[in-house]
Amino acid sequence: GDLDYLRDGREIYRRSFATIRAEARLERFAGPLERCVVRMIHACGMVDLADDVEASPGFAAAATAALRGGAAILCDTEMVAAGITRRRLPADNEVVCTLGDPRAAELARELATTRTAAAVELWRERIEGALVVVGNAPTALFQLLIRLEEGWPRPAAVIGVPVGFVGAAESKRALAARRHLVEFLVVHGRRGGSAIAAAAVNALASEEE
Amino acid sequence: GDLDYLRDGREIYRRSFATIRAEARLERFAGPLERCVVRMIHACGMVDLADDVEASPGFAAAATAALRGGAAILCDTEMVAAGITRRRLPADNEVVCTLGDPRAAELARELATTRTAAAVELWRERIEGALVVVGNAPTALFQLLIRLEEGWPRPAAVIGVPVGFVGAAESKRALAARRHLVEFLVVHGRRGGSAIAAAAVNALASEEE
Prior knowledge:
The structure is a homodimer of 209-residue chains.
Chain A: H1 9-23, H2 31-44, E1 53-55, H3 59-68, E2 73-75, H4 78-83, E3 95-97, H5 102-111, H6 115-121, E4 131-134, H7 138-149, E5 157-160, H8 168-176, E6 184-187, H9 194-205
Helix pairs in contact in A: 1-2, 2-9, 5-6, 6-7, 7-8
């Protein structure tokens, strides 16, 4: 009947990734970046996501080296943090989300900005060499870029995939225009989100599919 | 410059929802279901998601009444649970994810199925009148439907938006074919995911936009 389903998790993954590789335009990507794009597509169910992906040439190497070296992973929301599969991380890397920190609400009032943007302020001491993951909030990505231009220490790489209708596309264009500042991965346009963000981290963390 | 950004969270929400209502085909939806679809679109950045949404006629009323009555929210993954905004919940509703329960791994071996499907087995005692949210795993939705057909107590409603390339579309068709069993909301096709699932819950939980 229509409730008979494939129960073998590994086989489900194998068929999923085979379908993605058969349907998506992946010619622009190789190695860890290709695996990254495949897993991002897997997380959202849309093979044409590949067409909106842009990464700096050194992104994948910088991000994987940082993870292997034990870099912290700074996430804009708890949903991104929840989506990162801890057992895939190569160095038991710390996964950090400062959005719930009481100081973020206070800073938001002081700086007259959103709480997600204010939470970025609390990354200051941990950002050097970290992997930054913005999966939801355009305002967090804008705030990060402002601080990097002001001379903050540099993260190893930034995954910038905020989603939505106000500032998402603009913040990702702004990141992609700053390859002199930082290695980056973006999904241009309105699409993005925590699942795509976490999938990118999970792909970079381990070669296992 | 290109880093000037809108910093007023309420105004960002207002403009986002106005854009969605201007662009999406929402004529099929009204009241709490319309708010639900708007928020699902907000979570993924795609206004055409509306075209793939199907809900049973009693879905929104059943889901909102259940939440107000203190129903538990049963989630297939931690990412869905992390996306539910606790302060929007009308009755401090319990948010439950059994995927990390050690018994889920054991049951997966016994039943020769995925861990997400096995985790559904642990919903048995809490499912009556609950709001069920499947945001990731088609196998969890299949397993749930099998148990409901076998006579399990009925949840108040099921949000079925698993994502992906193997079983996602099929499991959602199977749910929509069972309106005699349970009130439902689905996004047909491959699209779905934890952000869309959590957004649907957040919309049903409170009228505040």
